């Protein structure tokens, strides 16, 4: 039932698990001993003329066995849990390390909830398998086997009879499960219907309600729920009888009736002494007991197995190769030659891009949304590997540069700011965790955010989200401070940042000007006016460079750029109006 | 737990559960009686003439088979009740979701509701089917055994009677130990989960700054989670062992008391094994019950969260709804807060029909709240929101929703084609009307680029479309719905000049035709407004037309002066000096 992947996953804790299983085996065997002791006590007393010392010895042995069994079981469970605990941490760390190396596109295609599911929930689901099921199976097999072995010694014929309920229980259970495969798939489909209808119903609730579609979405949800329940009741109606019968067959009451009835007949026929019935009355109910929990165990195994598979699948996600003997990026500019890129291997996002970013110059990427501007910018920092051509920094291919050296060379100011939980200082220090506070403050000052941070209750030690709440524009300035402190020679900048929060536009612009100074800059531009002074403007369309040059040249050419400029003419008008506004 | 089940079901659906509990009680007691009858049976078998045991066997068999029959009936009912329970819960949750005020649905709530319907409900379905029977058996069967024990031997009965409260106390204690350890662990699990989500979401930043290797905060959180799990283990082990130990200790005590009595001659030799067999049957359901703790706790938590949602009071519907005659909007001294301090204080303004009002102010000033109160996402805590002179609380929800149309910042796209998504605005709209709305919302280029045009499925949550394009879908919906009052949030539109143009066009086409409330950032929008409201810390600090406010020289004029300076900003070339 367990695939080899799972066994491989367990390898690091195999030794500890073996110890746990051994302890559990001991516990299972010792757990049967008290019942055997009681049987022997009964035999001694019923035999008449029993020596009290022997009886008390048996009582002592039985009590001691109880203690041993309990302690071994506790120890087994503890060892297994400790092993599982170590395994969980190890797997989580492996996953995180692995994820840090998969191409960035994987993250945009997969939502963060999915990552959380695997790293947290799936690893947790495996917990049951590692820490419980292994021991459970050991005990569930060994306890009846020990009991049966003893009973076979007492009277083999009646011992065989005790197996009848087990056989009946198993046969009935097998019948209940027959055809479960396709039904499980059907169950999954029906449950999936509920999921998607509830997502539509709940996630889209605002749309649904304000556009008066609440009744429809509600009905779809109820229909999906009803379909699921109709299917499920049909299924359970069909199997309830057999399942319940299998549970009853192995219940202590039924087992005792079967065994005591047969025993009584055998005693009457003179096949066995009456006292031999005692161990059967005590131990027979133990033998078929495993059947009663078999359903939940199979479910747990299946759940754990599915979880293990998704963990394995994630660990098998291809990563971007690391250079075997990395080179340091040289001095000089960034050069793209024949760069082509596709996220899925089919649709080309970029093709045949040639571009040179001379040291200390500003290059602007312009073009309609979806033209490939952000993708191109991200390739420079090797968020993805190019599918064609090459990108070099100072003559060294980015794929041959050590990742640690690469991020010291290329910096980013993103449009979406991600402030991490932690102190404000640590957020600014992201690239240089050991930067002294003076440098952090200098960066914050240049990014126009120092005063705001100083005004916080604990200044730079305030915790983001706890005693430091920032507006969009303030968060932008922190991310700019980050880039300033990282102080990379090449910087990729999303100009949209400047407009993220209209209420602090001016200060963001000041901060951006500060961070741009003296670097090789690649700007993803949305408003052409912002980049009209750039050293080089690159017009991208459908992943190709269609025009390249300075503002005046491109305007004069009357091509794509000139058309875009004219299309943004209303914006120019409004600027003129603003000028009027400025001097009312 | 059982009380929570009844609460979740509601009074009108609780009959089957009550019947199930009665059936389970009967089957558990019958089981206990059967075990008790084993004593005379065993005594007879082990006595002088085993043949005399047959009548007793008959009695045991009858009692045992009736117990089995009762269990059969109970278990069948349990499966049915479980499945009915889940159906009732889905229906009740569905009905509740329709009633809940829109304001209730924040991001975490939405996630919680999805989880509740897809995971918690099936979880609760298991309670009657798999948990209730062992739980009831664990209580009633041992109690029956204890109750009949005095008939056979007072000393052993006393031992059991003394042990019962002890067992109960130990079980309570051990459950509480495990629960407390578990609760402490939750903080570290949440921290680690939060860090994992952050790790995934902030991946671009982490990579750009060389921090994606999983060192630092995430690794500390993972290690912390591991340490907390271990700590929980050490704290839970005594609790888990204690109950198992206690149950076995009871058996050992009975053994010792019994053997002592038997050796002393005050207990007949055949009676001892018979009573020990009965004691073993007493202990077995108890041991089984101890293993149910974890599943019980999970189900109880699921039930509690479902009950919390079911307990939320929906906004009251008017008894005699009034249909407003016009689309004038009036806020009369509106005060409102989400719980911790007021967000709006004494906000008063009127929006005459077919005029345009622009709301401006820093983030957190309460602009979105004003828009939400207009459509009664929440009820005001003071004052009144009136449409056409009618308090929104006196308008039927459906009528109110028909009056107001929204262009959201956060656009939700349903599975289905682009056309379907636009048609959400007015389900009966013709293809031509849908196309016209799409065109008016600047979606022509998008439609042309899609492989199957307007009939292209947008993919789950609209992955095919960019943020700006999705907002245009929202505009198309609003245009198609053509409600008398339109609320529009410009915020994200600020990012993209293409979108900006579309939003401006939409505003222009609605101005003068509809009552328009715009949360405004763009100068042109504000200039065109019939009235501008400046909101600051929940109060309207200035109001008037653009020129009036500029002349007044207050916050508004300072604000726009700064904004206009930023217009000219640009990044410069090799000299590397920014300026404007």
Keyword list:
heterodimer; A: 584 residues; alpha/beta; Rossmann fold; four-stranded antiparallel sheet; B: 580 residues; 2 domains; six-stranded mixed sheet; 63% helix; ATPase-coupled lipid transmembrane transporter activity (chain B); ABC-type transporter activity (chain B); ATP hydrolysis activity (chain B); AAA+_ATPase (chain B); membrane (chain B)
What does this structure look like?
- The complex is a heterodimer of chains A (584) and B (580).
- By secondary structure, chain A is of the alpha/beta class.
- Chain A has helices at 4-10, 14-47, 52-99, 105-109, 112-154, 156-177, 180-203, 205-210, 214-249, 252-268, 277-283, 294-315, 373-380, 403-409, 424-428, 437-446, 450-454, 472-486, 505-516, 551-557, 560-567, 569-582; strands spanning 334-341, 350-357, 362-366, 388-393, 396-397, 410-413, 490-494, 520-524, 536-541, 544-549.
- Among the domains of chain A are: 1-155, no CATH class; 334-582, P-loop containing nucleotide triphosphate hydrolases (Rossmann fold).
- In chain A, the strands form two sheets. Chain A has a six-stranded mixed sheet with strand order 6-7-8-3-9-10, with helices on both faces.
- In chain A, a hairpin with an 8-residue loop joins β1 (334-341) and β2 (350-357).
- Residues 571-584 of chain A have low confidence and may be disordered.
- Chain B has 580 residues and is of the alpha/beta class.
- Chain B contains 19 helices and ten strands.
- In chain B, the strands form two sheets. Chain B has a six-stranded mixed sheet, with helices on both faces. A four-stranded antiparallel sheet of chain B has the order 2-1-4-5, covered by helices on one side.
């Amino acid at each position: 039932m367990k695939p080899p992947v799972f066994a491989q996953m367990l390898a690091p804790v195999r030794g500890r698990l073996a110890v746990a299983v051994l302890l559990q085996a001991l516990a299972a065997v010792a757990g049967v001993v008290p019942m055997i002791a009681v049987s022997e006590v009964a035999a001694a007393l019923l035999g008449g003329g029993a020596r009290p010392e022997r009886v008390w010895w048996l009582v002592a042995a039985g009590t001691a066995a109880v203690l041993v069994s309990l302690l071994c079981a506790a120890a087994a469970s503890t060892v297994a849990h400790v092993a599982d605990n170590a395994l969980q941490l190890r797997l989580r760390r492996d996953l995180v390390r692995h994820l840090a190396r998969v191409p960035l596109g994987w993250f945009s295609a997969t939502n963060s909830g999915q990552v959380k599911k695997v790293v947290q929930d799936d690893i947790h689901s495996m917990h049951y398998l590692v820490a419980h099921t292994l021991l459970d199976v050991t005990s569930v097999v060994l306890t009846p086997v020990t009991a049966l072995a003893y009973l076979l010694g007492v009277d083999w014929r009646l011992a065989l009879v005790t197996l009848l309920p087990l056989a009946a229980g198993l046969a009935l259970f097998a019948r209940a499960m027959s055809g479960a495969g396709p039904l499980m798939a059907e169950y999954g489909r029906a449950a999936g219907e509920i999921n998607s209808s509830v997502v539509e119903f709940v996630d889209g609730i605002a749309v649904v309600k304000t556009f008066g579609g609440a009744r429809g979405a509600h009905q779809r949800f109820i229909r999906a729920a009803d379909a699921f329940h109709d299917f499920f009741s049909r299924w359970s109606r069909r199997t309830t009888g057999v399942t319940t019968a299998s549970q009853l067959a192995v219940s202590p009451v039924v087992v005792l009736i079967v065994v005591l009835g047969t025993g009584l007949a055998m005693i009457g026929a003179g096949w066995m002494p009456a006292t031999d019935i005692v161990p059967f009355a005590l131990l027979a109910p133990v033998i078929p007991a495993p059947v009663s929990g078999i359903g939940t165990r199979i479910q747990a195994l299946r759940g754990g197995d599915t979880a293990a598979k998704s963990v394995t699948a994630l660990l098998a996600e291809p990563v971007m190769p690391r250079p075997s003997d990395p080179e340091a990026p040289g001095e000089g500019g960034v050069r793209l030659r024949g760069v082509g890129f596709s996220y899925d291997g089919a649709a080309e996002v970029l093709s045949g891009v040639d571009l040179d970013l001379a040291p200390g110059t500003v290059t602007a990427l312009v073009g309609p949304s979806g033209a490939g501007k952000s993708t191109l910018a991200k390739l420079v920092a090797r968020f993805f590997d190019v599918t064609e051509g090459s990108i070099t920094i100072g003559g060294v291919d980015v794929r041959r540069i050590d990742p640690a050296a690469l991020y010291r060379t290329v910096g980013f100011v993103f449009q979406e700011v991600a402030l991490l939980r932690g102190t404000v200082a640590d957020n600014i220090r992201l690239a240089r965790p050991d930067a002294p506070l003076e440098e952090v403050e200098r960066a914050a000052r240049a990014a126009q955010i120092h005063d705001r941070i100083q005004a916080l209750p604990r200044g730079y030690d305030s915790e983001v989200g706890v005693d430091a709440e920032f507006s969009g524009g303030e968060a932008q300035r922190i991310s700019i401070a980050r880039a300033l402190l990282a102080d990379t020679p090449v910087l990729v900048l999303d100009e949209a940042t400047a407009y993220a929060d209209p209420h602090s536009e001016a200060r963001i612009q000041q901060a951006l000007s500060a961070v741009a100074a003296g670097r090789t800059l690649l700007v993803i531009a949305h408003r052409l006016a912002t980049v009209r002074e750039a050293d080089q403007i690159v017009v991208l369309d459908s992943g190709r460079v269609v025009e390249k040059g300075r503002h005046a040249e491109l305007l004069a050419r009357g091509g794509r750029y000139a058309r875009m400029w004219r299309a943004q003419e209303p914006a120019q008008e409004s600027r003129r109006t603003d000028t009027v506004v400025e001097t009312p | 737990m059982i009380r929570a089940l009844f609460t979740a079901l509601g009074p009108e659906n609780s009959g089957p559960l009550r019947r199930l509990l009665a059936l389970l009680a009967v089957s558990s007691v019958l089981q206990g009686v059967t075990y008790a009858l084993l004593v005379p049976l065993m005594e007879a078998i082990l006595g002088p003439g085993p043949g005399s045991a047959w009548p007793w066997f008959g009695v045991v068999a009858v009692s045992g088979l009736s117990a089995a029959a009762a269990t059969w009936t109970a278990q069948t009912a349990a499966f049915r009740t479980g499945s009915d329970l889940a159906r009732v819960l889905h229906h009740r949750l569905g009905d509740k979701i329709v009633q809940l005020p829109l304001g209730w649905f924040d991001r975490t709530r939405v996630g919680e509701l999805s989880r509740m319907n897809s995971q918690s409900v099936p979880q609760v379905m298991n309670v009657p089917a798999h948990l209730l029977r062992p739980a009831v058996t664990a209580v009633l069967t041992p109690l029956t055994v204890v109750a009949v024990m005095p008939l056979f031997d007072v000393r052993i009965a006393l031992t059991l009677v003394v042990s019962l409260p002890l067992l109960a106390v130990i079980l309570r204690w051990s459950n509480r130990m495990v629960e407390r350890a578990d609760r402490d662990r939750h903080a570290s699990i949440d921290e680690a989960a939060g860090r994992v989500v952050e790790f995934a979401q902030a991946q671009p930043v982490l990579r750009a700054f060389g921090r994606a290797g999983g060192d630092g905060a995430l690794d500390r959180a993972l290690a912390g989670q591991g340490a907390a799990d271990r700590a929980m283990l050490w704290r839970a082990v005594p609790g888990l062992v204690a109950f198992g130990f206690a149950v076995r200790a009871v058996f050992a005590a009975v053994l010792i008391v019994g053997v002592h009595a038997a050796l002393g001659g005050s207990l007949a030799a055949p009676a001892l094994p018979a009573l020990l067999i009965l004691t073993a049957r007493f202990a077995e359901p108890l041991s089984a019950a101890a293993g149910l703790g974890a599943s019980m706790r999970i189900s109880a938590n699921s039930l509690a969260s479902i009950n919390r949602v079911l307990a939320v009071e929906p906004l009251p519907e008017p008894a005699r709804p009034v249909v407003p005659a016009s689309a004038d909007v009036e806020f009369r001294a509106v005060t409102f807060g989400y719980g911790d301090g007021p967000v709006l204080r004494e906000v008063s303004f009127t929006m005459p029909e077919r005029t345009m009002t622009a709301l401006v102010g820093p983030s957190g000033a309460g602009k979105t709240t004003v828009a939400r109160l207009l459509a009664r996402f929440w009820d005001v805590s003071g004052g009144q929101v009136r449409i056409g002179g009618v308090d929104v609380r006196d308008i039927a929800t459906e009528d109110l929703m028909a009056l107001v149309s929204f262009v959201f910042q956060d656009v939700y796209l349903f599975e289905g084609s682009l056309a379907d998504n636009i048609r959400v605005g007015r389900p009966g709209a013709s293809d031509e009307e849908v196309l016209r709305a799409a065109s008016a919302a600047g979606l022509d280029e998008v439609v042309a680029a899609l492989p199957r045009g307007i009939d292209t499925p947008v993919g789950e949550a609209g992955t095919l479309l960019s943020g700006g394009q999705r907002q245009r879908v929202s505009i198309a919906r609003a245009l198609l719905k053509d409600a008398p009052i339109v609320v529009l949030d410009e915020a994200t539109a600020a990012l993209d000049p293409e979108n900006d143009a579309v939003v401006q066009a939409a505003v222009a086409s609605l101005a003068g035709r509809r009552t328009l409330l715009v949360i405004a950032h763009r100068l042109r929008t504000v200039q065109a407004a019939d009235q501008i409201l400046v909101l600051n810390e929940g109060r309207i600090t200035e109001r008037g037309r653009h020129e009036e406010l500029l002349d007044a020289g207050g916050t508004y004029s300072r604000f726009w002066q700064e904004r206009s300076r930023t217009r000219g900003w640009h990044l410069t070339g090799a000299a590397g000096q920014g300026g404007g």
